[in-house]
Amino acid sequence: MMKHIDLPDTIAVFPLPGALLLPRARLPLHIFEPRYLAMLDDCLKSPTRLIGMIQPREVPGGEKKLSAIGCAGRLTGFNETEDGRYMITLTGVSRFRIREEVQGFAPYRRCLVDWTPFARDLGTAEEDKGFDRRGFLDLLGRFLAARKLGTDWSSLKDAETEMLINALSMLLPLAPEDKQALLESPSLTARRETLVTLIEFALRSGGAPDEVLQ
């Protein structure tokens, strides 16, 4: 298990709106842009094999900047297609706060980061002692029905609490700013409460494209 002292001060970051990675969760990605193929090649050569997932945000004037907080994942799955694209899996290691963006000759973005606010991320799975699984799954069922989404209920009922909350935070069709709020939640309990609030708001407001939750 990694310690914060083992984590690099500077990491490559992959800005991708709506893509959420959380500690101990897995995120599949399809890499095909030349700059990110170069990032992946460099990642494979590094001892930690870390890539920072970060949400871009638009500021007045149309300029796109990076959110303050992201989550780094270790490259744990890798497959190259015949046409030179990569199918990869990142396993979440720890969130980070950006200190500053590093200028250089790499075609992708790199940032100097601070891991210390998120020391808990490198520990064991979090618990949520106030979690009402039956009530939560009932709410989720109404959300999925309203959006005409399908899922494997048996896996949801049997999943560990952290895996369940984090997987739904990553997979449910929510706006990028909502995903960022889930990322920045200070604890699993706070993330679950935020997710419940977002689902309840979505049910009240209505309207979402049809999708299938895997």
Automatic annotation (TrEMBL):
Lon N-terminal domain mapped to chain residues: 11-203
SUPFAM superfamilies in alphabetical order: PUA domain-like
PROSITE patterns named among the record's database cross-references: LON_N
Top-level taxon of the source organism: Bacteria
A Pfam entry, by short name: LON_substr_bdg
SMART domains in alphabetical order: LON
Name of the protein in its database record: LON peptidase substrate-binding domain-containing protein
